[in-house]
Specification:
four-stranded antiparallel sheet, alpha+beta, about 190 residues
Length: about 190
């Protein structure tokens, strides 16, 4: 099942329910979209389908593609999700590594943390591992604005990171964009 955010036909809550309740369901988050996701994100849809096809172990499949969202697709998703691209925002990125690749993924992200935290637009950059699954990670990123994230993706160490970890992902990264909610009304 391919899904997008915010999604009209398949809102995120419906996609989450399907993941939890439908046995053997495979999902792929393909970025920002409303209704016709194949028109909103054709490249991401194509990569997700190609990765699914590759996992079927069909010998005739000659194309192996990375299904992770590209830097531009992440920027486009954030741009559509936030109300003000000049304001701070948070990204929660869920990552699943292929079996046996958790340590390699953790090491690769560990190498970029200090450099990323020194970027002028980076407020927070925390890479966390699920203690019950050494291949499941959550990356918490907080940026001053969308331009700061775009500059992060241009950094040589970020490009090197993506090149290293993209083939080690088991399925696509799950991306959630959050804005500061402020004080809650009492």
């Amino acid at each position: 099942m391919l899904y997008v955010s915010p999604g009209r036909v398949m809102p995120l809550k419906t996609a989450e329910w399907a993941v939890e309740n439908l046995k053997n369901l495979e999902t792929a988050f393909v970025g920002y979209g409303i209704h016709f996701i194949q028109e909103d994100n054709p490249e991401a849809v194509g990569r997700a389908i190609a990765e699914w096809y590759r996992r079927l172990s069909v010998k005739e499949a000659s194309v192996q593609m990375d299904v992770s969202l590209s830097a531009q697709e992440i920027i486009d998703t954030v741009k559509h999700e936030v109300s003000d691209p000049t304001a701070p925002f948070t990204l929660l990125v869920q990552i699943k590594a292929k079996p046996g690749e958790g340590k390699t993924v953790a090491t690769a992200y560990g190498k970029v943390i200090e450099a990323t935290l020194r970027e002028p637009g980076c407020i927070a950059y925390d890479f966390n591992r699920d203690p019950s699954d050494p291949t499941r990670f959550v990356l918490y990123e907080r940026w001053k604005n969308l331009d700061s994230l775009a500059r992060h993706f241009e950094a040589p160490y970020t490009r090197e990171l993506f090149g290293t970890v993209a083939p080690l992902y088991y399925g696509p990264r799950q991306l959630q964009v959050l804005e500061y909610a402020g004080e809650l009304d009492s």
